[in-house]
TrEMBL record:
Biased composition, class Low complexity, residue ranges: 435-454
Protein name: Putative transcriptional regulator
Keyword DNA-binding listed: yes
Keywords: DNA-binding, Transcription, Transcription regulation
Region of interest called Disordered, as start-end residue ranges on this chain: 413-454
Origin species: Streptomyces glaucescens
Classification via InterPro entries: GAF (IPR003018), GAF-like_dom_sf (IPR029016), OmpR/PhoB-type_DNA-bd (IPR001867), WH-like_DNA-bd_sf (IPR036388)
This protein's record includes keyword Transcription regulation: yes
Any GO molecular function: DNA binding
Signal peptide boundaries: none
Domain OmpR/PhoB-type: 244-310
Coiled-coil intervals: none
GO biological processes: phosphorelay signal transduction system; regulation of DNA-templated transcription
Length: 454
């Protein structure tokens, strides 16, 4: 197959491929092995589904209904591009007996429209507005997997992990905020086997790109007064908006800008060296070389020295999160938390800040006990093994899916191989290198064995 994201290669028989996939799915659910010709993207998704506690006979939970759904949709950024999506996809869905669906970044369906009979059939499996179709809740499916991977994807027949969905085929593509690059949700087309064609995947990709272009026109959103705008939550490489340019920063430059944004007064070379490097052998020359490269990326006049500082105001999702948490605005804080801060960073100051942000938000969610907020956290990668959150969620939203996941986690807790302890999984657990335990990180200027005179 030339494109691993397309379900069927040219000339393949859909009925025969569906039979092969059903047998492969049965083998996986019984033995845990994935036989050929299951695509790698599907095999990986099946494994993630199992790790998330999804069962092949599970179902979708409706988490937003009536007034809550209406209010949430009205405020969602994708509401502004729904007229465009209907214009581009509505006739195609009606004429082909398909469905147009749009989900948010958590895999919750916000709109499901299209052919009336298809909507009735889809309703029987809760493919309806307000239902959670995240991969971590409903297994492999196009909108949920597209959001999980941040990649257009097509899912055919028994490639779906949940059996009751295997009579459908779907294709979905993520939609991004044109200013920050953050995933806002996904557009999806769902129907019969006829959608297992490269054209359907290309179609939803084109609609997603059109939606992003429309959002950019509706809200150009230049930072005021020449300010910089930094997005670093949930990203290994931060996005910087500077003087009309959108720049993807390297990991080291991302770390430097996060720290300088938090210290408008500036940091000395010694403070930056302590904050960025846990290795005593790193010299000031190495740091100065990085700052020279960063100055070229930013452009003239934005990075000053002695001390190192940014010469224009900086807004960042990190400071927004801190401000909202400090004000007790838990719902608003959760809405801006796209994931751990620079998850792959091992810079001591970043590791410490990442933990503080995650712990602060998690504690606020547990105290608030709002079922939607707890569910959002529990179904994200950083919360899927968080026993305290799942227990809290089970008390306020005791659905079958939640109870099953909690039971699985508690079974791990008492399993002999675990010694009565769950593997350590702090909220920022995906923010460090696998297998490496980060030691307590000193703050700027507090490096162990620091060298005087720098």
């Amino acid at each position: 197959m030339t494109d691993p994201w397309v379900a069927l290669e040219p000339g393949a028989d859909p009925a025969e491929r569906a039979r092969i996939l059903r047998r492969a799915h049965e083998t996986f659910t019984v033995a845990g092995t994935v036989p050929r010709p299951v695509r790698a993207v599907v095999a990986d998704s099946w494994r993630r589904s199992v790790r998330a506690g999804v069962g092949p006979d599970g179902g979708a939970d409706v988490e937003l209904a009536d007034g809550d759904l209406g209010a949430y949709r009205a405020e969602h950024p994708l509401a502004r591009v729904m007229p465009l999506c209907r214009e581009l996809m509505g006739s195609f869905a009606l004429d082909g007996e398909h469905l147009l669906a749009v989900c948010d970044a958590h895999g919750r369906l916000l709109w499901v429209e299209g052919h009336p009979e298809s909507r009735r059939r889809a309703g029987r499996m809760n493919f309806v507005p307000g239902a959670r179709w995240a991969e971590s809740a409903m297994g492999t499916n196009a909108p949920g997997t597209a959001v999980a991977l941040d990649r257009p994807v097509q899912v055919f027949a028994a490639e779906h992990f949940v059996r009751r969905v295997q009579s459908w085929t779907c294709a979905a593509a993520p939609v991004h905020d044109p200013r920050t690059g953050r995933v806002l949700g996904a557009v999806d087309i769902t129907g019969g086997d006829g959608l297992a064609h490269p054209h359907s995947l290309a179609f939803v990709q084109a609609v997603a790109r059109a939606a992003e272009s429309q959002l950019a026109l509706l809200d150009p959103g230049e930072p005021a007064d020449g300010a910089l705008e930094l997005t670093a939550l949930g990203r290994d490489e931060a996005i910087l908006l500077a003087r009309g340019r959108r720049v993807r920063l390297s990991r080291r430059h991302s770390e430097i800008l996060v720290l300088l944004a938090r210290h408008p007064e500036g940091l000395t070379g010694d403070e930056l060296l302590c904050a960025l490097y846990d290795d005593e052998s790193v010299t000031p020359v190495t740091l100065r070389a990085e700052l020279v490269r960063l100055r070229r990326v930013l452009g003239p006049g934005l990075l000053a020295s002695r001390p190192y500082r940014l010469t224009v105001p900086v807004t960042s999702d990190v400071t927004v999160l801190e401000r909202r948490l400090g004000a007790g605005a838990v719902t608003a804080a959760a809405s801006v938390y796209a994931g751990p801060l620079l998850p792959a960073s091992l810079a001591p100051a970043v590791v410490r800040l990442r933990r503080r942000l995650a712990d602060g938000l998690r504690s606020a969610l547990l105290a608030r006990r709002d079922p939607d907020l707890l569910s959002d956290w529990a179904h994200r990668p950083w919360g899927e093994d968080d026993l305290d959150v799942w227990r809290a969620l089970a008390t306020v939203r005791p659905t079958a899916t939640v109870r099953a996941r909690l039971a699985a986690l508690e079974a791990e807790l008492t399993a002999p191989s675990s010694g009565g302890q769950l593997p350590s999984a702090p909220p920022g657990r995906r923010g460090g290198a696998p297998g490496r335990t980060a030691r307590p990180a000193p703050g700027p200027g507090q490096r162990s064995g620091s060298r005087p005179g720098r």
